[in-house]
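B., you asked whether I could sanity-check this one before it goes into the benchmark set. Here's the sequence:
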Amino acid sequence: MTTNADGPQTRPRRRTPAGAAVLREDVTEAIRAAVFEELATVGYARMSIEGIARRAGVGKTAVYRRWRSKLHLVLDIVSAIAVQGLPAPDTGSLEGDLRVLYEVTSRALWHPVASQIVPDLQAEAARNPEIAEAMQKALRDGQEGVALKIVAAAVQRGEVSEDLDDELALDLISGPLYWRSVVLRTRKPPRGYLDSLARATAAAIKAL
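And here's what the prediction gave me:
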């Protein structure tokens, strides 16, 4: 506030500098949602910034203000999935922890959108090292972090040997559901399958 001979005056409101555009979060989220829908509908190869903008209800410039190409847009979104992470289950047993992990992973892999996007990006990853790296982080590192915590907890409880081969245990834990969903492209596992898988995997890890 300033003063002069006529009394106190209101201080002028500071204006945002010209050119410093504020990126609205609701627009950013609408674009991200549109990317998932476009990937599920047309795939990465046919996806375009124009299609994304149209589906999000924004102009192309709104997309380009945030990402300079569709590759960087997809890499950003796939990488964001990786850092979200999954909470490590704590049921008190190896089999119980695996059952929870398989339930969460199953819901994610067989989600109508994810079931279309993941195989498409996996195929694209064979041609694009940047997408391959992002997919590696999203699909392997996130799952690996939780699986390692499950195994470490089982070691602490004395359920498995301290000399356990972690890499082999991770293969046993993570392989089956990805085989069914990404490679075989089968429908969601039948009733009782996740229970049987958790039981069999726990037994196999204990036998290592």
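One thing to flag: The first helix runs from residue 25 to 46. Otherwise nothing jumped out at me.
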